[in-house]
Amino acid sequence: MQTDPHLMLFQRERRRLAGLAYRMTGSVADTEDILQQAWMRFAGKPLAGIDEPARYLGMVVARLCLDHLKSARARREHYVGAWLPDPLVQDNAPDAEQSWIVAEDVGIALILTLDRLTPEMRAAFLLRDAFDYSFEEIAAVVGRTPATCRQLVSRARKRMAGAEPGPALPPEQSAPIVAAFWRAARTGDMQALMDLFAEEIEVHTDGGGKVPAAINVLRGRRRAAGLFVGLARKRHLPPPPLPPLRTINGVPGFVTREPGNVLQTTAIGIRAGKIVAVWIVRNPDKLRHLNENAV
Questions:
Q1: Radius of gyration of the chain (CA)
Q2: Which neighbouring-strand residues pair with 264?
Q3: Which of 83, 106, 194, 197 could bond 201 through an S-S bridge, CB–CB 3.0 to 4.6 Å?
Q4: What are the pLDDT digits (tens) for 150-162?
Q5: How many other CB atoms are there within 10 angstroms of residue 219's CB atom?
Q6: Predicted confidence (pLDDT) per residue in 213-235, tens digit
Q7: Which run of H or of E encompasses 54?
């Protein structure tokens, strides 16, 4: 049986394209929709008319992402509470279609910083610095001149400075910190939490208005610790055992079922032995890609 050359090319580039789409949208469902749209456009185009199919596919995906971001802006303005990207749990890709989620460097802090860029700036920056497209190719995607695209990339680089994740801690160093956080948060141990948290810690909780969650980002270790102490007091239950540790967007964390049967992912950013960020996703719309063995 003869293999479709379009399909072979597309499957070969799938991880790269998915990495671009996820960094642009922060959404697993939108990434998959965009890849499907890109495939439909590519499948019907004669290969003889495409000089470099891999680069062509990247430009198609980037254009689709730009269209998506522009149409989604109004919806995002009305989003309830803190927004976080869909969590990528490394050992819970439910099928081969989502195998890309274990392959890309997609740190949460990076996605949040990208999200503060304009759609055109975001596309220009990613295409140039992450995928090595020329300014002429970028101009064809964003509808600006090459000179303007060079300026977009320069401004984006300044805003992105410091957003790249540092080297990941080996599990033998991160696991004890995560375990200590679990115990302190579940028992409401204020002092233990204060000792674990960096002074500049941020806690983001994304419920999307669908389930209870903190509306604002909490900054500072006393406010952050107070949140977890308050949650522990409301549970009135002995702390359950530490769940299996997972890798979520490149950092350690865990997946749990909370009161009310709410599925939740908790990702923990650690720097210099202190917890600098806790990213909690509770919005059920952002957890649909996790399979039934997630907890």
A1: 21
A2: 256
A3: 197
A4: 999 999 999 998 7
A5: 12
A6: 999 999 999 999 999 999 999 88
A7: helix 53-77
